[in-house]
Design brief:
By secondary structure, this protein is an alpha/beta fold. Helix content is about 35%, strand content about 15%. The longest helix has 15 residues, at about 175-185.
C-alpha cells in the first residue's frame, strides 16, 4: 500500500481537492465540541498552501437523511479552519452546482474553499459517476486524507480518483501515516507481536481475530466479548452481555487459536450497571446469578501487562471493560499504563473506543500511533482490501 503523498507532487499554482475527515461532533447550537479531526488534517492543508497551491476541502458530516440538513452543515468547520489556519477560508453552501463552480474558479493560491456536506447529495453514497466527475473537474490534484472513511466506497473516495483522467491522485499526510502503521507494521512486525482485543461482541471482531491469529504471537481477549468465550468453555456468565448464537464460533476460534488466544483468568463483576453497585472479583467463567461481568480482574490485568511488557509490536482495539464507569475502568487503565510503559515497542491504538480511552487516560503521547478511524482501522486489522487506497498513485 505504498502510495505517493501530497509532498511528492508540485502544487504551485494548482488547485488541490482534499477529501478530509471533518466529521466532527456538534452540539445543539451547531458548535464544534471536539476539533481533533480538523487539526489532524491541517498538516496536509498547510503542505499545499505553503507551496503555492489552493485547497478545496470536501467531507461528510453525520448521516443526513433525505437531503440537506442545516444541523449537519460544514459551515462551523469552515469557521474553525479560518481560526486555525489564519488564511482566507471561504464556505459555499453548494457541492457541484453553479455556486460551487464560481467559488472554485475564483479560488487563488494560498486560499481554502470548503464545500458543503457531501452527503447532502445522493450521488455521494451511491458513488454516482456523474457526481464524481463533477467533483474531479474542480481540481488539478486529488488528495485523500480521510482514513476514517476509506472503508467506504463513496464517490468522493473512489469515484473521484478514478475520474481524475491522468491527474495526480495521492495520499494526504494523515492517511500516509495510518497506512504506515496499520498496514506496513502488520505485514512485517517486530516480535513478539501482541494484539489486545476488547469490546462488546465477538461478532464485531470475528474477522479481526481470525486475521490476527495468523500474524500474532498472542491475542489477548477482554471486554464483554470474553463472556461469550466463557460460555463456549461451559462457564457461568450470570447477567453478562453474551451472544449465545456465537458460541459455536467462539469454540471454533478457541480451537484455531490454541495457546495464542489468551482469555481472562478473573472478572470484576457487579449486580447492577452502576458505580455504586455491589461488586465482586471472581474466577473467569464463574460469575454468579444476578451479577454481570464489567471488567477484567486484577490477576488478568497483571497477566496481560506481562505479555505487553515483553512485546515489540502491540495493537490494541477495544477496551477491557466499561471504561466510562469507575471502578470498572481499572482494567482498561492497567492495559493503557502497560502499553505506555513499554517504550521499546511499536504500539498502535486502533481507533474508536480504544482511542477515546487512551486519550481520556492521558497516555496518547506515550504510544507510537493512535488511529483516527474506528471502522477503518478495524477493517484494516481484518486484512480487508481498500479500493479507495488502491485507486491512488503508487509510490515510485
Amino acid at each position: 500500500m505504498a502510495k505517493k503523498t501530497i509532498e511528492d507532487v508540485d502544487v504551485q499554482g494548482k488547485k488541490v481537492l482534499i477529501r478530509a475527515d471533518l466529521n466532527v461532533p456538534l452540539d445543539d447550537q451547531q458548535r464544534i465540541t471536539d476539533d481533533r479531526r480538523i487539526r489532524m488534517t491541517l498538516p496536509t492543508v498547510r503542505s499545499v498552501l505553503t507551496r503555492g497551491g489552493a485547497v478545496i476541502l470536501i467531507s461528510h458530516l453525520g448521516r443526513p437523511k433525505g437531503g440537506p440538513d442545516p444541523k449537519l452543515s460544514l459551515r462551523p468547520v469552515a469557521e474553525r479552519l479560518k481560526e486555525l489556519l489564519d488564511v482566507p477560508v471561504t464556505f459555499v453552501p453548494d457541492i457541484i452546482g453553479d455556486d460551487a463552480r464560481r467559488a472554485v474558479d475564483a479560488l487563488k493560491p494560498g486560499e481554502v474553499l470548503v464545500l458543503e456536506n457531501l452527503r447532502f447529495h445522493p450521488g455521494e453514497k451511491a458513488n454516482d459517476p456523474e457526481f464524481a466527475a463533477a467533483l474531479a473537474s474542480f481540481a488539478d490534484v486529488y488528495c485523500n486524507d480521510a482514513f476514517g472513511s476509506c472503508h467506504n466506497n463513496d464517490a468522493s473516495l473512489l469515484g473521484v480518483p478514478r475520474a481524475m483522467d491522468g491527474k495526480p491522485k495521492v495520499a494526504g499526510l494523515l492517511l500516509a501515516k495510518e497506512l504506515k502503521y496499520l498496514s506496513s507494521v502488520l505485514e512485517n512486525p517486530q516480535r513478539p507481536f501482541v494484539a489486545i482485543l476488547g469490546g462488546a461482541k465477538v461478532s464485531d471482531k470475528i474477522k479481526v481475530i481470525r486475521n490476527l491469529l495468523t500474524r500474532c504471537d498472542r491475542v489477548l481477549i477482554g471486554g464483554a466479548m470474553a463472556y461469550t468465550f466463557a460460555l463456549a468453555k461451559g462457564g457461568r456468565v450470570g447477567n453478562s452481555l453474551v451472544e449465545p448464537d456465537k458460541v459455536p464460533l467462539a469454540k471454533e476460534l478457541l480451537e484455531l487459536g490454541g495457546d495464542k488466544l489468551v482469555l481472562p483468568v478473573d472478572t470484576h463483576c457487579g449486580d447492577a450497571f452502576s458505580s455504586d453497585c455491589n461488586k465482586r472479583i471472581v474466577p473467569f467463567g464463574q460469575i454468579p446469578d444476578g451479577y454481570e461481568g464489567l471488567d477484567i480482574g486484577p490477576e488478568t490485568a497483571r497477566l496481560y501487562a506481562e505479555f505487553i511488557r515483553q512485546a515489540r509490536t502491540i495493537v490494541w482495539n477495544g477496551p477491557m471493560g466499561v471504561f466510562e464507569l469507575p471502578p470498572f475502568d481499572e482494567g482498561t487503565r492497567r492495559i493503557a499504563e502497560a502499553i505506555a510503559a513499554n517504550q521499546d515497542c511499536v504500539s498502535i491504538i486502533g481507533g474508536g473506543d480504544s482511542a477515546a480511552a487512551i486519550q481520556k487516560l492521558g497516555f496518547a503521547d506515550k504510544v507510537t500511533h493512535v488511529s483516527t478511524g474506528g471502522g477503518a482501522s478495524l477493517a484494516m486489522l481484518e486484512g480487508r482490501r481498500f479500493e479507495t487506497v488502491e485507486a491512488l498513485d503508487d509510490a515510485d
